[in-house]
Amino acid sequence: MANPGWARVGAARLAAVAALGCASLAYATDVQVRWKTALVADQAAWKPRELAQPVASADGRWAWFGAANGVTAVDGQTGMVAWRAPTSDPVVGRPALVELPGDASATLYASTLAGALYAFEPKTGKQLWREPTRLDVPVRSPLAADQRFVYLVADPASVHAVDRRTGKPAWRWSVSVDREYLVEGQGGATVYESLVFAGTPTGRLVALSARDGALVWDVTLEDRQKSPYGDVDSTPVVVKGPGDKPMVLAASHSGGLCAVAADDGRLLWRYAVEGLGQPLLTEDGIVAVSALGEIHVVDLRGRRKLARRLSAPAAGTLAWLGNGLVLVPSELGLDVIRTKDLRTMRRLAGEYGWSGAPVAAGPIWVGLNNGGAAFGLSVRPDGGDWPAPQGP
């Protein structure tokens, strides 16, 4: 996205090496802090895990962060703040930057814990709707969008579609919740062709019509004999399975990692490990970590390739770095793990842990830690060179 003339507000760039230690677990250092920017005034008052992963422009020039006090745009290469837009309550689900063919300009959407949906002009932070759309349901999940709608998964178990241009609610799908044990969902929706896939805290994966929210199919992934916690709170991932047919990957806390046929919801396979989180497709297979602190690599037929216990339970989403490396967040920091043998290559440790892995912004990886500080990181593949940061 071209960004001429962006105003930079304040000198928010801070030195990071004093705040973070880079503990080498093998040989040369592979993770380097390029910049650190505080998004909250009082890190001690920051509530861990109540945060959103950032979203970055396609060219990596800018990144947008949701936090307790609203949305902040920063220069992805320097960490300088471009603008801040306050919201009425915390933004804890990942915003969505929509850049689609035919659009005159991009739009940034962000939702809050109280269910207010905002639309911003990404370059300036100007609100594009007179008032935010108020759904009055908690939204903790990342947003998704297509040509017509923004899709939100909200507590306790509902999916909402909102018109991207007007902000008017288009449709809503929900399922009744009548059980004692219910985990707050943090998985978002995934749009694939004419369908919207979403998981529910009641253990179901559903496919809805993107046009009107009609239920196309649903399948129960939980295993209540193992645990009363059957929530499907990962964001579905669509991949090409055997025979090049699309299948949907989703994880149920009690039911494990499951693959479902995208067209009719048939359960294709189940990798029955309790507590697995967000699946990530890599060149070495499907990678997922469990709440018990295990990392697993599974092939496209659901067969285990590797598994190993980590030094700390991981949290949130993972990031594929390429070159056989995956970035795993935890309360101890960020681990760079080699997928071919699940060896921990490096760790970026600090006072605060991470609830989600950084995202790529050109040659820089940008992320938000549990202390409410945004970071720009360089990650060097084994034996490779540091990627050169782009200039402002």
Structure description:
This protein has about 400 residues and is mainly beta. The protein has 2 domains: about 10-65 and about 330-335 and about 340-390, no CATH class; about 95-185 and about 185-270, Methylamine Dehydrogenase, Chain H (7 Propeller), CATH 2.130.10.10. About 0% of the residues lie in helices and about 45% in strands. The chain contains no helices and 34 strands. The strands form 8 sheets. The protein has a 5-stranded antiparallel β-sheet with strand order 1-3-34-33-32, with no helix packed on it. A hairpin with a 3-residue loop joins strand 13 and strand 14 (about 160-165). The radius of gyration is 20 Å and the shape is globular.
List the helices and strands and how they pair.
Elements: E1 13-14, E2 20-24, E3 31-38, E4 55-56, E5 62-67, E6 70-75, E7 81-85, E8 96-98, E9 107-111, E10 116-120, E11 133-134, E12 144-145, E13 149-154, E14 158-163, E15 169-174, E16 190-192, E17 195-199, E18 204-209, E19 215-220, E20 237-240, E21 246-252, E22 256-261, E23 267-271, E24 280-282, E25 285-289, E26 294-298, E27 304-309, E28 319-322, E29 325-330, E30 333-338, E31 343-350, E32 359-361, E33 364-368, E34 373-379
Antiparallel strand pairs: 1-3, 2-31, 3-34, 4-5, 5-6, 6-7, 8-9, 9-10, 10-11, 12-13, 13-14, 14-15, 16-17, 17-18, 18-19, 20-21, 21-22, 22-23, 24-25, 25-26, 26-27, 28-29, 29-30, 30-31, 32-33, 33-34
